[in-house]
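During the first year of the project, the team set up a workflow for recording each protein of interest as an amino acid sequence followed immediately by a discrete structure-token representation. This format lets reviewers and collaborators read both layers of information side by side without switching files. As required by the reporting guidelines, we include two representative entries from the current panel. The first entry is reproduced here exactly as it appears in our internal archive.
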Amino acid sequence: MSERPEADTDGATPVFVEHRELLFAIVYNILGTVADTEDVLQETWLSWTGRAHRSPIEDIGNPRAYLVRIAVNHALARRAAITRRRETYVGPWLPEPLLDEPAADDSADDRTLRSESVSLALLVVLESLTPLERAVFVLNEVFGYPHNEIAQVIDRTPAAVRQLAHRAREHVHARRPLYRAHPRVRRQATERFVEAALGGDITALMEILAPDVTVWTDGGGKARPAGLRPVHGRDKAARLLAGYATRRGSGLDVRYRRVNGDDSAVVFDGASPYAVMVMDLTPDGERVSDVYIVTNPEKLTHVRRDEGTDADDLTEAADGRRG
């Protein structure tokens, strides 16, 4: 029996590794969960090496495009399973937070690709799109793929892709204005908010929360307290958030991290992650319009206390990219 398939598989490995971070970033933005993204990348690897067994990798003119197509189609298939899980999910469902804290041996290019993950607030909006609309939006708006290339990825005509892109863009822009606060404004607002919430200062919370603020708490039925519905309005939100102060004395500790590209707060109970808190600001950057709190332990398995860089350094890096 020929040894060529094994040799081809060996040759496939460095090609896959070269594009893995790009594939992770695209799939994560389509799915919103790290665990499902890792599963899709494993499925993509199996498909890729299966292709290597059938014919030489050198025959593929554009390996990157080939891998993106495999990964996106596996991700679209995975969306059905995620939708089924959400139908029985307890309470509000939020995307799994992705901390912008790469391992020390990650390259600069890898860190850049990880930072392409869209904000948690935008991921929430993307959940309301159809799977195809979301894939097109992510490829076009986040990664800059032209319509004709997306058409090849999802096996649709360029005209169909343009229509999907138009619908997705209109829907997203209607629900989320094209505004993104400066990193230092976000950091200052985040610190004010966390100090007031974990300090139990309802007066300060009333000052920083917008009148129509909404608090989303995702505990998945596995964490207490976590409401079964989003909490709307400043008064109710302030009372709910001040409740976290009652547990501050039990050892909760706050670390500021960049989560999905935004300065956010990660709360630890000892060495274990307790919650990830992400704030969305009003267009003037003065008040908090939405609060996203993830306490479901299954969504915090990738959060480690000793991980990452100090948030001040991360904010300075973001400032430098803006400059």
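The second entry, processed by the same pipeline in the following quarter, appears below.
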Amino acid sequence: MALPVTHHTEHAITVAAAARRVFGLIADVGRWPETFPPTVHVEHVERGETQERIRIWATANGQVKSWTSRRLLDRERLSVRFRQEVSQPPVAAMGGEWIVEPLSGTESRVRLLHDFRAVDDDPEKTEWILRAVDRNSAAELAALRTAAEQAENRAELVLTFRDTMEFTGDAKAAYAFVDEAGRWPERLPHVARAALAEETPGVQTLEMETRTADGSSHATSSVRICFPHERIVYKQLVTPALMTAHTGVWLFDEGRITSAHTVVLDEKAVPDVLGPDATVADARAFVRGALGRNSTATMAHAVAHARR
């Protein structure tokens, strides 16, 4: 009987940033959803100084996959080894390593290695995995370079905020209101259209058209990870023009709903969207106001639904 075939890939990129700055972005998985396009959500299962277990949800060839990985962080060598504990088909096993190599004080080389086996060594499954690895690796390395090279003004471009609403009523009913986003057009005045799909329990895709205060509208596409009746985490895969990334979470406690957002602004889009004299500060205020209004409106309707 033939042994399973292990396939190996390597992707690399040069980054105009110090190696330790780049390594910090790789090591901090909590920031991956805002940094890496394929990553939807990451949670720590276990966490130590040099070893950790994480659960990750990410897109691969248009599908949402989830797995738990062990990671070994070598801060001296500037490397992170990873190995999936239980892989999702068509992947039978996968691991690899991030390696950051200093080229100078202001430039580094990043190598991303993968090794994997396909279920049953099936050629079609192998090809599917190769496409996903190539696509995701290229997207992650390009995004890593962008984040590392704009590190000096990154703090200005990343906006994090939350709104909270107190209420008396059934928290599960409030959760259900947000969970049933496919019904938002009939329930929320700022939602013109919504299409919700949930092929895997707890993993939703939501396409939505939202009306803005000036009467225009914009379309978004999101992946939502649902943890009944506690929280709904989401990431927009298609964002409005002012953003390069938008992640968020709905939190439900007895007597309280919270909507939290993390947005990465697109500095180059600011003049086109807000006018030639607009600044990043103007964009921060605009996005904070627009998202806050929509979140508050949604929470108010969820509260009314819970009270009924």
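For the second entry, the following points were noted during internal review. The radius of gyration is 21 Å. The chain has a mean pLDDT of 95. Both points are flagged for discussion at the upcoming steering committee meeting.
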